[in-house]
Design brief:
With 439 residues, the chain is mainly α. Among the domains are: 71 residues, no CATH class; 138 residues. It has 20 helices and no strands. It is globular and about 75 Å long. The protein starts with a helix and ends in a 13-residue tail after the last helix.
Amino acid sequence: MTEENIFKLLKDNKELSSLPQVLAEVIRVADRDECSASEIADVILKDPSLSARMLRIVNSSFYGQAREITTINQSVVTLGVRAVKAMALSAGLYRLFENENSVVDRIRFWRHSLEVAIACREIAKACGYQPAEEAFVAGLMHDLGILVLESNFSDRFRHVWNLVEAGESLIKLEEENWSTNHCRVGRFLLTQWGIPSLIGDSIAGHHDEFSDENNTPQHRLSRIVSLANHISKFRICQLPPMGADQIEQIDSLAGSLGIGPTTLADLQEKTISRLIKESEFLDLKVGSTTDLLLDANSLIYKQYLLVESVLRENRQMQAQIARDQLKKAALESLKTITATLSHYINNASATILGRAQLVQLAVDKGTVVDSENVVDDSMEIVVSSVETISLVLDELKKLSSFDTTHYHDETSILDIEDRLKEHINRLDPKKLPQPQPTK
């Protein structure tokens, strides 16, 4: 089946070929330069469910109003036009793609989508892209093509998704089965809905590999969505650890947008810490605070394993190098080791800081009861993680200051792994994975 046939079939699906009328009207009115609160309020009043949702949100603790707001017009004034558009869009999409028998976990799907949307907005602010809310909308809808393929080809999609969860490439499997992929399907859907082509194009290209040739202003939103998706911590399904090519792509995307490592780590922290708050505002179910804590805990574990894996691979590589080539090879490997470890450290730092924010938020809201020592355990892991990161940073400093003659002594390099293993072994064995002996 060709992509053209796929799109014709999707176009004939009346449930997906057009947005719900009220949502389409909200987007159309909100996109006008001189739209008023009363105009949007008149449209929202046509949908009792959307009206009730807006009143509930604007009177929630998220906004902390001194007096109760009882009209939709007041709600629009309080929330702002762009916030109302994002809220209406999330509500409409959430209802449109509800499916109790879905093979795609809806909680994980919307958690990932919202995380990418928030990251898009923060990246847009960091690189001066305007309006930042446009990037938020693109991020929120970037994976809708997955749900479209699932709803139209349920049996085949279930088989594909099982392979994806086993570690195979989603894009590759989609191309093999439908001669297209969820990125291009998403753009087709948005075109049917009358969403601006710039947003559709950014969704179509969010899995592309960007180079200097497409580092142009018209590709800027695509690069923002791609970077946000790359740095997302909460995925729809488990994925294998990042390879060197993915790390290189992140650095390239961030550099092309003028975003340095410190800024990138900072906006990742903001993304994680705002996820719970904004899910409440948009009334999206993304899981409980405890669910996110468990996922964050798993992410920290992976950072330890990745650091250990990098060091083990480096040790094996060094053992194979002839002694007369050791000096040259060691100098080259130092650059690779430093860059790779720095990337993992930045990711770990962002995760840890975000986790601390989540713990504090959970305690402040009273949503986590510490009967099972969740908070205590979490803080122990935070402390242990910070200690390990400090140790790795110290080793990086030592590597950077090495005189070239030190490389003739293999132990100057190989002892790094042993020192880190010793540190990890001193941590609580119940909370951290034990390093495997090097073969």
